[in-house]
Specification:
Blueprint: H1 2-8, H2 12-15, H3 21-31, H4 37-48, H5 54-83, H6 87-108
């Protein structure tokens, strides 16, 4: 599900290339399906983190997500000022999605739940 959600983000590429506003909006809506990955990332974290460290791991995951939320509008604004177009910002977003997906496939790999301690 995570892979499918991230691949939906690739719809940003045709969204900036079409001239019809309704078609572009359809592609943007499809690209927003990348948000489907959020619940799955939290489930993966809760299934794999040691119970005693779950809050710590969740905090770092949220910190990284919020850091991206702070830096992406700054980077997009910089790119718009430099190029006069939103297209480079969308291109960077697609590259980041592909890099994260590649890391998910290679670094994370097959996930197995962590051992849970009896409470």
């Amino acid at each position: 599900m995570l892979t499918v959600a991230f691949l939906c983000g690739l719809m940003l590429i045709p969204a900036v290339r079409v001239s019809n506003p309704q078609t572009a909006l359809t592609f943007f809506c499809a690209a927003s399906m990348v948000g489907l990955a959020t619940g799955n990332m939290m489930a993966i974290l809760q299934g794999c983190a040691p119970t005693a460290r779950l809050g710590f791991w969740t905090g770092w995951e949220n910190f990284a997500g919020n850091l991206g939320g702070v830096l992406s509008p700054i980077a997009t604004g910089f790119l718009i000022v430099r190029t006069g177009s939103y297209a480079p910002g969308f291109g960077v977003a697609v590259l980041v999605l592909l890099a994260v997906l590649l890391c998910y496939w290679i670094v994370v790999g097959e996930l197995e739940p962590a051992e849970r301690q009896a409470e």
